[in-house]
Amino acid sequence: MEQNEKTNEHNEPIETVGSTLSPQDPATPAEEKPKTKGFWRDLFETILMALVLFVILNAVTSRVKVFNVSMQPTLKQGYLLLVNKMAYKLGEPKYGDIIVFHYNGDKQEDYIKRVIGLPGDKVDISGGVVRVNGNALTEPYIMEVPNYSGSWTVPAGKLFVLGDNRNHSSDSHQWGFVDNSWVVGKALLIYYPFDSVGLLSIDGLVRAAPAQ
Question: Could you give all domains of the chain from N- to C-terminal order, each with its CATH number?
Answer without folding.
Answer: 61-199 (2.10.109.10)
